Amino acid sequence: MEALKKGEIDIDTLVNYVSEVISKESGNILGDAQKSMVLSRLNKRLIDLGALDPQSYYEYLQENYKKEVSILVSLLTTHHTFFFREFVHFEFIQDYLPIMVEKIKKRGDSKLKVLSLACSKGHEVYSLAMFLDSNKELLQGLEYEVTGTDIDPECIEMAKNGVYSFKEVKTIPTKFLNGNWKKGTGEI
Predict the structure, then answer these.
(1) Which pLDDT belongs to residue 187?
(2) What's the CA angle centered on 38, arms 35 and 39, to 5 degrees?
(3) Per-residue DSSP letters for 40-81?
(4) What Å distances lie between residue 48 and 45, 57, 68, CA to CA?
(5) Which is deepest, 9, 50, 109, 126, by most CB within 10 Å?
(6) What pLDDT is attached to residue 118?
(7) What percent of the chain has pLDDT over 90?
(8) Which phi and psi (to 5°) does residue 93 adopt?
(9) Which burial class, exposed, middle or buried, applies to 164 when counting CB atoms under 10 A from its CB (0-12, 13-18, 19+)?
(10) Are the C-beta atoms of 76 and 39 separated by less than 8 Å?
């Protein structure tokens, strides 16, 4: 990624540069198809920072690279998530679980370990845990551990907190609600 020279940075050049930075730092490829999304979210960031022009923002980014890249990653990645998303995956796990359990026991292990990548605010991790909890008979005495990751530190903190709005939780199938949730106040 080549450094840009003063005076040659217009908004299109900045959008391309930021897209390259995000691709390099996060692995998320932001190409032509995402250009309007990058432009729109970048414009909002410029306004949030006091209506910086593209040149000033480029300089700001260079001076605050680590912190600003973290903000940009959060701003430019999708946080689309909900409980029991893509239920067909859970049906697959249910069908394949006895085979997995057999292989785990054959290795001499006593725990099923599940890694959920790009889990955003934790909905997927909690869904997996509720699902496995409700299918304990298929685990044949194995314990389980579900670990979630995400590129956005803000999302990880929300996931660790484990507090969701009633609107989000009410979409969970009733079978998985019992014993897994405590009612908060208001919309929590």
Answers:
(1) 77
(2) 85
(3) HHHHHHHHHTTS--HHHHHHHHHHTHHHHHHHHHHHHS----
(4) 5, 11, 13
(5) 126
(6) 82
(7) 23
(8) -60, -45
(9) buried
(10) no
